[in-house]
Design goal:
The complex is a heterodimer of chains A (about 400) and B (about 100).
Chain A (H helix, E strand, L loop, with lengths): L6 E5 L15 E5 L3 E2 L10 E2 L3 H6 L3 H13 L4 E5 L9 H10 L3 E6 L6 H9 L6 E4 L5 H8 L4 H14 L4 E6 L8 H9 L10 E2 L12 H8 L3 H8 L5 H12 L17 E4 L4 E3 L10 E3 L5 H13 L6 H5 L14 H8 L7 H13 L15 H9 L2
Parallel strand pairs in A: 2-5, 2-10, 3-4, 5-6, 6-7, 7-8, 8-9
Antiparallel strand pairs in A: 10-11, 11-12
Helix pairs in contact in A: 2-3, 9-14, 10-15
Chain B lengths: L10 E3 L3 E6 L2 E6 L10 E5 L1 H9 L6 H12 L3 H17 L3 E3 L2
Antiparallel strand pairs in B: 1-5, 2-3, 3-4
Classes of the chains: A alpha/beta (about 400), B alpha+beta (about 100).
């Protein structure tokens, strides 16, 4: 025996925690509900708060608790509770406390409008060990409620943030760049920085997913709110050229083209997601019927160690994908993935023109492409990216 | 401030932490506020710490834990006592271990 330092702190994530093998599952993302008390213009998830059918189909607290037990048994350390609005669930505290008592850290994604004094005290006394992430949709009542389309939501959000701050609960403010709020980004950042309890910077959602449910009109609405490529570049450049340098660097480091591989973004075992009805997914948002595993008829272990690895082996067959995405050196910039293809086209492997256009605008800004040049026609694109990065 | 450690007393894990064994590592996760210095800290133990931790289970006085360890390690009582008192000091200060009964 020897006495040196007995206790080792591990801060911010699990890096450095594992000396030999890593656990089977590092993080589990749980969408507790698809329902939301807001009706945001841009949201691809929200069902009405009172949607009876959705509510009746959601997993009960008992099922979520059993799943959390399983996740902890697989070595999971972090669970993300999101939605919809997770605080709509009357049993949220029960689920949250169960997760914390299992030794899970909890990432809570919320709009903060339903934060009560009791919940704020609970988050103070039994802290989530992860920063609460609060989406704030505007700086003024007018702009905020133009996005949320819910009367009283601005005041409720401010009240919720106040309760978090008063109780010393660490939170991050996240914005969204939408027509009613497009000119507010700087103001929102400055306001957020002044809030007690707020930590980190203020990220902005800029590229919105469609709804993958044809016929309800919401996808057309979302499509109309999206920034174009040049606008996205201008927004990213508002603080200088740092973002553009990062794109160039990222492209230089992201290796060759995808080929026919589809699932390239998450290392095996890094995370998995579960929808409100107990279906395991590769990630939040990917609900293609071929890409979900019903946890009512199989274990989380089987889903994570059997189903998801098999899914990761799925290859693209869409000729347009193989011709374009498969040969494109901008994969480090482009958001194309099975979840985006699903949201946009209801498939896993159809090129999404919108994200393609954004990535091309980024590449032009970064000096990696000439305007009008298509990235998949560039021979040795990754060499070009490395050369221009200087790496 | 250092806690006074009494070999005749019984110590055990605090209810303010959750202790997990994952892939051979003991991971101590704060449950209530005020355990770590920061909000996102986890704690793990070195090998010595792990051997000691598993024996400080609230079932017997600390002196018996030291005797048991000295036997297992075939090491002098004094050396083992130094390690046990060292880790206990650290864990008591962090509120991860508390006096039981």
């Amino acid at each position: 025996m020897s006495a040196k330092s007995y206790v080792r702190k591990v801060i911010s994530g699990e890096a450095g925690l594992w000396r030999s093998s890593k656990p089977v599952l590092a993080r589990l993302d749980i969408e507790l509900t698809d329902r939301c008390n807001n009706d945001c213009l841009h949201c691809s998830v929200n069902l009405p708060a009172g949607d009876v059918e959705a509510r009746a189909s959601e997993w009960t607290a008992a099922r979520w608790k059993a799943l959390l037990d399983e996740a902890a048994g697989l070595g999971c350390l972090v669970v993300r509770l999101t939605g919809g609005e997770p605080l709509l669930r009357a049993d949220f505290e029960e689920i949250y406390l169960h997760a914390r008592r299992l030794g899970l850290r909890v990432m809570l994604f919320t709009n903060a409008t339903l934060v009560t004094p009791r919940l704020a005290r609970l988050l103070r006394d039994v802290p989530p060990l992860e920063t609460v992430e609060v989406s704030v949709y505007g700086l003024t009542e007018k702009s905020y409620e133009a996005v949320t389309r819910a009367r009283g939501s601005f005041a409720a959000c401010r009240r919720g943030l106040g309760l978090l701050g008063e109780n010393g609960v660490a939170f991050t403010v996240k914005g969204a760049v939408l027509p009613p709020t497009r000119d507010e980004a700087d103001g929102l950042e400055a306001w957020a920085a002044s809030l007690p309890g707020r930590t980190g910077s203020t990220p902005f959602a800029t590229l919105f997913d469609l709804r993958s449910q044809p016929g309800d009109g919401k996808s057309a609405l979302i499509a109309g709110l999206r920034m174009g490529g040049d606008e996205f570049v201008d927004f990213s450049r508002r603080r200088g050229e740092g973002a553009v340098d990062e794109w160039r660097d990222f492209c230089g480091r992201s290796g060759g083209a995808r080929g026919d591989r589809l699932f390239t973004c998450l290392p095996s075992g890094a995370s998995a997601a579960v929808d409100p009805y107990g279906r395991l997914q590769y990630c939040l948002g990917l609900r293609h019927p071929d890409a979900v595993y019903d946890l009512a008829s199989g274990s989380l272990r089987e889903g994570v160690t059997g189903f998801l690895p098999r899914l990761r082996g799925t290859r693209a067959s869409d000729p347009a994908y193989l011709e374009r995405c498969g040969r494109c050196f901008l994969k480090g910039l482009c958001e194309q993935c099975p979840a985006k293809s699903w949201a946009e086209h209801g498939t896993l492997d159809t090129p999404v023109e919108y994200f393609c256009g954004i990535a091309h605008a980024q590449a032009v800004a970064a000096g990696l492409l000439d305007r009008g040049e298509k990235a998949w026609t560039v021979r040795d694109g990754s060499k070009r990216a490395k050369r221009r990065t200087g790496s | 401030m250092k806690e006074k450690i009494d070999l005749g007393r019984v110590y055990g894990p605090s209810d303010d932490v959750v202790v997990r064994e994952i892939e051979g590592e003991i991971v101590i996760v704060p449950l209530t506020s005020g355990i770590g210095d920061l909000e996102d800290e986890l704690f793990t133990l070195n090998e010595t710490g792990r051997d000691i931790w598993t024996r400080i289970d609230g079932s017997r006085p600390l002196g018996a834990v030291i005797e048991d360890l000295a036997k297992d390690y075939d090491a002098p009582d004094g050396l083992v006592r130094r390690d046990v008192v060292g880790i206990l000091q650290e864990l008591l200060e962090r509120r991860m271990i508390v006096e039981k009964g």
